[in-house]
Amino acid sequence: MRYMMFVVADPDATAEAEPAPGDLTIEEWLADVDGRGKRIIGERLRPLSDATTVRVSRGQVLVTDGPFTESKEWICGFDILECEDLDEAIAIAARHPMASGGKLELRPFWPGEHA
């Protein structure tokens, strides 16, 4: 099953977070997950200041700079994971460096054909 894993950062919490003994670096996490073929793709995202929000209201396209919601947390990256089940996706997310000081949101894809 495929999962989208959003990497969510809170700059205040991230600045205060200290790695615990045994925590992986991002390089170690990538080597592990990529080496096992569990990560399809993943990228860091540009900051909120580079975001553009698009919506349609009464047939008119409205474009605004920045994110639509006001929040101090923001999505700073994503990964597409191929896992046997949610338990495996949780185990992979729990080892990500942003699990301490940030959070990881897992969302399953709707069932269907994968390209």
User: Main β-sheet, in a few words?
Assistant: 4 strands, antiparallel
- Percent strand: 35-45%
How widely separated are the two ends?
Answer: 13 Å
Number of strands: 6
* Rg from Cα: 16 Å
Average pLDDT number? 87
Describe it for me?
The chain is α+β, with helices and mostly antiparallel strands. The strands form 2 sheets. The chain has a 4-stranded antiparallel β-sheet with strand order 2-5-1-6. Strands 3-4 form a two-stranded antiparallel sheet. A hairpin with a 2-residue loop joins β3 and β4. It is globular.
Secondary-structure map with pairings?
Layout (H helix, E strand, L loop, with lengths): L1 E8 L1 H6 L9 H10 L3 E6 L7 E6 L2 E6 L8 E9 L3 H9 L7 E7 L7
Task: Give a brief outline of the structure.
It contains 3 helices and 6 strands. It is α+β, with helices and mostly antiparallel strands and 115 residues long.
List keywords for this structure.
two-stranded antiparallel sheet; 37% strand; globular
